């Protein structure tokens, strides 16, 4: 994970001021790459406590093909709450009246999430993010890409076409309404001569402080799950970035992060009896030897 900290330092030092959709402002660079050997341990940042429970639930939610925040909310994971909420405010003409992350906004957000929890009809209507990751992974114009790629890895491991894409140009506008166009856009698997499974992700846009630690752990887990069901060993996770940025309201947090020293990586164990990608449950994941520094709170740019 030193590579992540080096990238954080690089963007902090060399990132160039750039305005962005959220109005927050960033330091940004274009085109970088991180790699990690998955056999060396589970790539979960140790210089701050990372919310792994949320990462696991989010990944299972993608794999289920689910695009409604109801599943996440019911499992007490709030990482996608702000986007359907903002869409809800917009429909009421309130999105420009409430200051994001202000007291009123926060209060209304809690009310909104309470309604998602209690009222199924409300959740159906307002919890839906549109045709985001889960939809594209499981039903991209009728193709179940996850099912296809697993079968292809098993039967044609030398293939150079082991690709899953979340970027569906015809549906981007719809994704942007209540959710976001996919940031982790496309990934490719690779099976080496010695039966190791690697995965490379292209991430078009990367919130380096908040989102990237989630993205690394999530794809490392996905690669472990696919390796297990395809009976392969673990290779590398290669993370390729387009616009990598640090939001201007994360700079203090980045300095804290960079002042800390990484510890040995934790270990992740998957329940070995699971042989079907679609049958993993939350209880099938066990993290041990994780001794991180304290969490570092930061507001998410909406
Ligand atoms: N600006 C932005 N950055 C992102 O990383 C991001 C988005 N937007 N939009 C969609 C998803 C949602 N993701 C998120 C959203 C919030 C956190 C976050 O706040 N993480 C906290 C812990 C949150 C908690 O404990 O509930 C952290 O400290 O990592 C992380 C990833 C990643 N994505
Ligand atoms: O998994 C994710 C999802 C989102 N992000 C970040 C990257 C950007 O900061 C925003 C998305 O804004 P766009 O204007 O659509 O690029 O969310 C991430 O890092 N990881």
UniProtKB/TrEMBL annotation:
Q: In which pathway does it act?
A: Pyrimidine metabolism; dTTP biosynthesis
| Gene Ontology CC | cytosol
Q: Which residues form the active site?
A: 183
What is the annotated signal peptide range for this record? none
**What reaction(s) does this enzyme catalyze?**
dUMP + (6R)-5,10-methylene-5,6,7,8-tetrahydrofolate = 7,8-dihydrofolate + dTMP
Residues in coiled coil: none
Q: Where does dUMP bind?
A: 21, 160-161, 204-207, 215, 245-247
Where is the protein situated, by its record's location annotation? Cytoplasm
Q: Which residues bind (6R)-5,10-methylene-5,6,7,8-tetrahydrofolate?
A: 207, 301
What molecular functions are annotated in GO for this chain? thymidylate synthase activity
Record-listed E.C. numbers? 2.1.1.45
- Alphabetical UniProt keywords: Cytoplasm, Methyltransferase, Nucleotide biosynthesis, Transferase
A single GO BP annotation from the record?
methylation
Q: InterPro entries under this entry?
A: Thymidate_synth/dCMP_Mease, Thymidate_synth/dCMP_Mease_dom, Thymidate_synth/dCMP_Mease_sf, Thymidylate_synthase, Thymidylate_synthase_AS
- PROSITE patterns assigned: THYMIDYLATE_SYNTHASE
Domain Thymidylate synthase/dCMP hydroxymethylase positions: 2-302
Q: Which family does it belong to?
A: Belongs to the thymidylate synthase family. Bacterial-type ThyA subfamily.
Quaternary structure, from the entry: Homodimer.
- Protein function: Catalyzes the reductive methylation of 2'-deoxyuridine-5'-monophosphate (dUMP) to 2'-deoxythymidine-5'-monophosphate (dTMP) while utilizing 5,10-methylenetetrahydrofolate (mTHF) as the methyl donor and reductant in the reaction, yielding dihydrofolate (DHF) as a by-product. This enzymatic reaction provides an intracellular de novo source of dTMP, an essential precursor for DNA biosynthesis.
Which NCBIfam families does UniProt cross-reference here? PRK01827.1-2, thym_sym
Q: What is this protein called?
A: Thymidylate synthase
Which organism's genome codes for this protein? Arenicella xantha
Q: Which gene encodes it?
A: thyA
């Amino acid at each position: 994970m030193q590579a992540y900290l080096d990238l954080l330092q690089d963007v902090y030092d060399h990132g160039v001021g750039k305005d962005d959709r959220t109005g927050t402002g960033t330091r940004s660079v274009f085109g970088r790459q991180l790699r990690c050997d998955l056999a060396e341990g589970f790539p979960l940042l140790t210089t701050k406590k990372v919310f792994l429970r949320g990462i696991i639930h989010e990944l299972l939610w993608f794999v289920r093909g689910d695009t409604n925040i109801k599943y996440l909310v019911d499992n007490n994971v709030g990482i996608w709450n702000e986007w359907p909420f903002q869409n809800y405010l917009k429909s009421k003409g309130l999105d420009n009246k409430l200051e994001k992350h202000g007291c009123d906004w926060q209060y209304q957000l809690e009310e909104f999430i309470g309604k998602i929890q209690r009222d199924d009809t409300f959740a159906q209507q307002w919890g839906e993010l549109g045709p985001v990751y889960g939809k594209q992974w499981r039903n991209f114009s009728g193709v179940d890409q996850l099912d296809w790629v697993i079968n292809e890895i098993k039967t044609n491991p030398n293939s150079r076409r082991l690709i899953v894409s979340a970027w569906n140009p015809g549906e981007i506008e719809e994704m942007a309404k209540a959710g976001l166009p996919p940031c982790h856009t496309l990934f490719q698997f690779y099976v080496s001569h010695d039966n190791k499974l690697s995965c490379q992700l292209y991430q078009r846009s990367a919130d380096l402080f908040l989102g990237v630690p989630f993205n690394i752990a999530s794809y490392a887990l996905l690669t472990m799950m696919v390796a297990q069901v395809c009976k392969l060993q673990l290779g590398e996770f290669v993370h390729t970035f387009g616009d990598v940025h640090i939001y201007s309201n994360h700079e203090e947090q980045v300095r804290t992060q960079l002042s800390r020293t990484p510890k040995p990586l934790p270990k992740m164990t998957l329940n070995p009896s699971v042989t079907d990608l679609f049958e993993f449950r939350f209880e099938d994941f066990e993290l041990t030897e994780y001794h991180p520094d304290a969490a570092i709170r930061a507001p998410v740019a909406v």
